[in-house]
Amino acid sequence: MNKTKQQESRRNFLKSVSLVAIALPLTPLGISSLIGCAKSSVGAGKSDDVLKTILANANPSSACSWCGAKDAPQNVSWRTELAKKDDEGGPLIISGTVFQTDGKTPAPNILIYVYHTDIYGIYGRQGEHRHGRYRGWMLTDGKGRYEFRTIKPASYPNTTIAAHIHMTLTGKNFKEDWVDSILFEGDKFLSEGEQNRAGKKGGFNPILKLEKGKDGVSRGIRDIQLWEGAK
Q1: Interval 69-125: pLDDT, tens
Q2: For residue 121, which of 137, 109, 134, 110 has the smallest C-alpha distance?
Q3: Residues 147 and 95 sit within 8 Å (Cβ to Cβ)
Q4: What's the rounded Cα separation, in Å, for the pair 72 and 201?
Q5: What does DSSP say about strands 207-208 and 177-184: parallel, antiparallel, or unpaired?
Q6: Nearest CA-CA partner of 111 in 137, 130, 92, 89
């Protein structure tokens, strides 16, 4: 290549770089960021479509006392936080995997709604949603995983009902439905009937043995198996 053509090629290169610099902040990863943004936009659109399809199966009735999928926000992740760091109560992290009906194959894109009482056994107080402020949503990831951080709930006041966390599941091909509530091993109000029924709806064992870590956070695993008709 002669000197004139080399200079022309260099000018064209610099012109291209300048156009990119105008469109992007001047960073070492500018061009990569542009490509990344494009991929992100496509992914977000696909995710929105999936969630829209799922929400069409949410129970729309305000009379349903246990439903809540219809209130899911648009930016649902596979993990969420129900409690603030300064909330009263023992910090708790529940995680798990949702499986298909075979109990082995992970089930992605399942919308999970959870809610529970506060440390006094109360759901919604004046001005709050009837399920209280400890409520949230997750959309299982490609491996069927979900996780939420909260505080350990208490039993209803003046009752012998064991402390629990309610859960509903909604999918692209099935309507919102409840699964066995999360219960806790060692709860003094845990009845024999509850122990016998455990795992009837949602598979696996919903009575969790919590392990408290050095960070003071108790952790439990609640895996879920979809039932026939929920695929």
Answers
A1: 999 999 999 999 999 989 999 999 999 999 999 999 999 999 999 999 999 999 988
A2: 134
A3: yes
A4: 23
A5: parallel
A6: 137
Which pair of structure tokens corresponds to residue 46?
């696909």
Measured distance CA(47)–CA(185) in Å, rounded: 37
Q: What number of residues does the chain have?
A: 231
What is the DSSP-derived secondary structure letter of residue 106?
B
Short-list 10, 16, 12, 15, CA closest to 2: 10
Q: Which pTM was predicted?
A: 0.79
Which residues make beta-bridge pairs with 92? 150, 218
Over the Cα atoms of the chain, what is R_g?
A: 24
pLDDT tier at 229 (50, 70, 90 boundaries)?
A: confident
Q: Residue written as tokens 């603030």? A: 84
Domains of the chain: 3-55 (no CATH), 69-225 (2.60.130.10)
For the ranges 35-39, 114-118, 160-164, 171-175, which has the lowest average pLDDT?
35-39
N-to-C CA span, the chain:
63
Q: Residue 225: phi, psi to the nearest 5?
A: -110, 125
